[in-house]
């Protein structure tokens, strides 16, 4: 399987020296944010990881290889590629065989990072169960249930059915740990009515929990819910009407499958006059900061 992977020089050096790594997805660059915010954010989060003594490992599929770690030029290449695809786990064999380029979702990033031996992954929000479509369940949840990694997020994407997403995670044995919160955040909104069983208040406690999870041989991932910083959040009474409007438009235009999430996020950004985009970027930065601190602490074990 190693023949399908290529590692950046920075990542290879970190692995040789046993320094901490933080996995980052690339659909943020290819499908999640508009230009030039996508490239700016990708570079900003990598910088934050390095400032915390952690090597960023942005993952993507390029020219028939799974790339673990990207150079500045490769990040720019992904941004400029008008035909770049979106890769979930099921798509990887096809994309490799056809030597295509793709951004990796939460699911495929988890799959690739786990093979590379990376233990911590920071993202914006995970996929989940779609509203009104109980059978439309993101592969993010399936992969999270069977990949023993720590995933830092700001909750599930706000366009999803949060209670059913949490039910799925519970059924499949995925611990959901609140970081300085007792409720599950809703991406743009820090506080919700969804109470969490477990929560911790510092990185050391979080790292110790993860150490025990792995020592017990648990096969699932651990989802760490890190709320959006309060200055950046959008109150539920503002964001919910924007989401409802976007969902109705998607139904009217028959948008579905892989296209639904980028479509909805774009529409919500338009309705909120860019506030949701600002929130999205800042919550990603917040998650990467926590992910880097966690990776550093775990590496010291």
Automatic annotation (TrEMBL):
Signal peptide: none
GO molecular function: hydrolase activity, acting on glycosyl bonds; metal ion binding; pseudouridylate synthase activity
GO biological process terms held by the UniProt record: nucleobase catabolic process
Cofactor note: Binds 1 Mn(2+) ion per subunit.
GO cellular component terms listed in the entry, alphabetical order: cytoplasm
Record flagged with keyword GTP-binding: no
Catalytic activity: D-ribose 5-phosphate + uracil = psi-UMP + H2O
Binding sites annotated in the UniProt record for Mn(2+): 136
A Pfam family hit: Indigoidine_A
Cofactor names: Mn(2+)
Domain of life: Bacteria
Oxidoreductase as UniProt keyword: no
Family matches, as Gene3D superfamilies: Indigoidine synthase domain (3.40.1790.10)
PANTHER family: CARBOHYDRATE KINASE PFKB DOMAIN-CONTAINING PROTEIN, ZGC:136858
Subunit relationships: Homotrimer.
Function: Catalyzes the reversible cleavage of pseudouridine 5'-phosphate (PsiMP) to ribose 5-phosphate and uracil. Functions biologically in the cleavage direction, as part of a pseudouridine degradation pathway.
Family: Belongs to the pseudouridine-5'-phosphate glycosidase family.
Protein name: Pseudouridine-5'-phosphate glycosidase
Organism lineage: Bacteria, Pseudomonadati, Pseudomonadota, Gammaproteobacteria, Legionellales
Gene that produces this protein: psuG
């Amino acid at each position: 399987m190693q023949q399908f992977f290529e590692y950046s020089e920075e990542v290879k050096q970190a692995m040789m020296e046993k320094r901490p790594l933080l996995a980052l997805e690339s659909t943020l660059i290819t499908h999640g944010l508009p230009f030039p915010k996508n490239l700016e954010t990708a570079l900003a989060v990598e910088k934050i990881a390095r400032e915390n003594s952690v090597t960023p490992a942005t993952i993507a599929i390029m020219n028939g290889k799974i790339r673990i770690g990207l150079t500045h030029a490769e990040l720019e290449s992904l941004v400029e590629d008008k035909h770049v695809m979106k890769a979930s786990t099921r798509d990887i064999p096809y994309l490799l065989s056809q030597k295509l380029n793709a951004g990796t979702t939460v699911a495929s990033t988890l799959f690739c990072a786990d093979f590379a031996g990376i233990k911590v992954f920071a993202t914006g929000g995970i996929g989940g169960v779609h509203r009104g479509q109980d059978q439309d369940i993101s592969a993010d949840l399936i992969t999270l249930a069977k990949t023993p990694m720590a995933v830092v997020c700001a909750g599930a994407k706000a366009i999803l059915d949060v209670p059913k997403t949490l039910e799925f995670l519970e059924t499949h044995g995925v611990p959901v740990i609140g970081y300085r919160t007792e409720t599950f955040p809703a991406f743009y909104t820090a506080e919700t009515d969804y109470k969490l069983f477990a929560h911790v208040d510092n990185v050391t406690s979080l790292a110790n929990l993860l150490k025990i999870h792995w020592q017990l041989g648990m096969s699932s991932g651990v989802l760490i819910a890190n709320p959006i910083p309060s200055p950046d959040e959008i109150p539920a009474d503002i964001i919910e009407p924007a989401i409802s409007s976007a969902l109705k438009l998607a139904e009217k235009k028959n948008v579905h499958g892989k296209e639904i999430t980028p479509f909805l996020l774009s529409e919500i950004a338009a309705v909120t006059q860019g506030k949701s985009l600002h929130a999205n970027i800042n919550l990603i930065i917040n998650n990467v900061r926590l992910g880097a601190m966690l990776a550093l602490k775990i590496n010291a074990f």
